[in-house]
Write a structure and sequence with these properties.
Blueprint lengths: L2 E3 L14 E6 L5 H9 L14 E3 L5 E3 L14 E6 L6 E6 L1 H4 E6 L10 H18 L6 E3 H4 L13 H8 L2
Parallel strand pairs: 1-4, 2-7, 2-8, 3-7
Antiparallel strand pairs: 3-4, 5-6
Length: 171
């Protein structure tokens, strides 16, 4: 898996353990402008306070904007439930401030208006597999932005194929 590292002015430098993967969409728009907005490069653009660890373009190319173990500003006001333990004996614990506890992945596009490309799904599956293994993330903790901020967000959107993602994770 090839990942292009992008310089970013959007990191707190805080390092935290990651328990979640949160999937987002960027909405429609020019890819280069979105990349600049998420990375705040050049610094002369309006400061967005929005970032993500990864961005996947429609060709499936993966860009890393923030190092995995650092915070990014992708979850906003949010909370989720952490699943801990085996499938038979797991417990759930509600957590907040998911910017500290999650890795954010943006898909270029608007999943409420259009389907994501086959290439995006292939890259997303490969990236999620890698991150799950590296950080021991329970698959039940792979969520959409809409799952952690249901009153504010609707992404990755109604066209996002969760079944395809999870089938790919177990293939």
């Amino acid at each position: 898996m090839e990942i292009v590292k992008v310089p970013s002015n959007h990191t707190t430098g805080k390092k935290n353990t990651k328990q979640f993967i949160v999937i987002h969409h960027t909405g429609l728009g020019d890819f280069n402008n979105i990349l600049k907005w998420l990375s705040n490069v050049p610094k002369s653009i309006k400061y967005s306070r929005v970032s993500a660890h990864y961005l996947i373009d429609v060709s499936g190319k993966i860009y890393q904007i923030i190092p995995d173990d650092e915070d990014s500003w992708h979850a906003g006001s949010s909370k989720g439930v952490v699943h801990v333990g085996s499938t038979k004996t797991y417990k759930t614990v509600e957590v907040s401030d998911l910017n500290n506890k999650s890795i954010g992945i943006e898909l270029h596009g608007d999943g409420n208006l259009i389907d994501y490309s086959d290439e995006q799904y292939a890259s997303l599956i490969e990236l999620c597999k890698s991150l799950r293994e590296k950080y021991n993330i329970d698959p039940r903790n792979i969520l959409g932005h809409e799952d952690i901020s249901p009153t504010r967000k609707r992404d990755p959107g109604s066209f996002f194929d969760w079944v395809r993602l999870f089938k790919g994770l177990y293939a």
